[in-house]
Specification:
two-stranded antiparallel ribbon; 10 strands; alpha/beta; single chain
Length: 309
């Protein structure tokens, strides 16, 4: 008996599922010559705090892995190559009453399928301010916070997460919305969210790497099945950015316990083949892998010098 055709039952292609970023990353770094597999943070349980007050009376902050633009640090514009010079290594904060030019050239977002032209896709402060003006939340906290994208679990857990918690407490934050961009960013925000939640502050992560977030076991997660770099919605699509933030707020209100994931109904495009490309060694030639290894080593040296400075 022949197998039924996919179109007979309306099946989607198998690749039209969340991108397996952890396995892709392991395979990719093995292929360029790094043979020790990275240990992704993994927990089987997550802390959980119920909202202390309705969102309409809550003070909300943002935790981002984007970096403030610095013209002295090379090309950080749309489509810029990975720029290790633009990385930051300490928690920073910014005044939410002002405009901010935050960029993501320092991290591994999906440079093939998105161009980083609209920071509303990774930094939802404008949308959060609109929700405050509309009375959906009580107010936006006076500061947002930048979380360094650390591959070191220890630095994130023992230095960065406690520092963000201390600043949230100082600002009397009721709720934190965390927005990662690259694979390691997702792990970073997962660890920070767990720390905030364990210390009394409810959180929700808006992200695109479902496997990494759920592997780390977070309290609440809004999953957008978009290319990395678009956790807060589609570029030049304010309606999608507003809808994405609203869905995150609903997760905050409706989650009955930890490890609650909601998937956004929005699709990036009708053609899901973009999911096959990110760091997929099966689609990279030996010459391209060698080029990427050389570029990775170069950027690693730049970052090492910046960290020591």
């Amino acid at each position: 008996m022949s197998a039924p055709r996919d179109d007979e039952f309306g099946f989607a292609p198998d690749y039209d599922s969340p991108v397996p970023y952890m396995q892709r990353t392991r395979d990719y770094y093995t292929a360029i010559g790094y043979t020790t597999p990275y240990r992704w943070a993994h927990y089987s349980e997550a802390p959980f705090q119920k909202l202390k007050k309705p969102l309409a009376k809550s003070r909300v902050t943002i935790v981002t892995t984007a970096a403030p633009y610095d013209p002295a640090k090379g090309d950080q514009g749309p489509g810029a190559a990975y720029n290790g010079s633009a990385k930051f290594y300490q928690v920073y904060d910014g005044d939410t009453s002002k405009l901010h030019d935050l960029r993501i050239s320092h991290i591994g977002y999906d440079r093939k399928h998105t161009t980083a032209t609209d920071n509303g896709t990774w930094f939802p402060l404008p949308q959060l301010l609109k929700t405050s003006a509309a009375g959906r939340i009580g107010e936006v906290a006076p500061r947002f916070f930048g979380a360094p994208t650390n591959r070191s679990h220890r630095v994130t857990l023992e230095t960065d997460a406690p520092e963000i918690l201390a600043r949230c407490i100082a600002d009397q934050v009721d709720v934190a919305v965390l927005v990662p961009n690259c694979p390691v960013c997702h792990q970073t925000t997962a660890l920070v969210a767990r720390h905030l939640e364990a210390n009394g502050i409810p959180t929700v992560i808006m992200g695109c790497a479902k496997d990494i977030i759920e592997h780390a076991a977070v309290p609440r997660f809004l999953f957008s099945d978009f290319p990395l770099g678009n956790s807060a919605g589609k570029p030049q699509d304010v309606a999608s950015q507003a809808q994405t933030l609203e869905l995150a707020l609903r997760v905050l209100e409706t989650a009955s316990g930890p490890q609650t994931t909601m998937q956004s109904p929005l699709r990036w495009s009708e053609d899901a083949s973009w999911k096959l490309d990110y760091n997929n060694v099966a689609k990279l030639s030996p010459e391209e892998l060698a080029r990427r290894r050389a570029e990775f080593d170069k950027q690693k040296e730049i970052a090492r010098g910046n960290r020591a400075a």
